[in-house]
Input
Amino acid sequence: MLCGSFVGVRATHTKAHFTRAVLEGVSLSLLDSKRYLDGLGIPYDSVATLIGGGAKGKLWSSITADVLGIPLRITESSDSSLGSAMLAGIAVGIFKDAKTAAELCVKVKDTVYPNKENTEKYGVIFDEYKRIHDALAPIYKER
Output
């Protein structure tokens, strides 16, 4: 089961604050995964492709680029099922391999670049996010 928490809530916080907190929380979770991969020494392109419903929104795309500190490609089709369709195409011989499928099917329409000042701020926020996450993890495991 996935769990989440709002910490430091005050009466002055609005729906907009909670909405942004959710967007930032998802992006910080992606940064957690990125740092894990970095620690394993797994190579990846210095530019990533953002897919799914969140890729359709400029705010979330911008927050994610800032949090991750890398440019994010936005594709014409951000539907995550495109990857499944491409894999099926490879399996039945429509595409030679994943590289060919991507070259033929994935069309980049925009690239969102991180704001370095925001990336630095999110680095500090990430440290707090991890402390809170790690402190609450034992409680979440009980559920």
User: Anything to note?
Assistant: DSSP finds five helices and three strands in the chain.
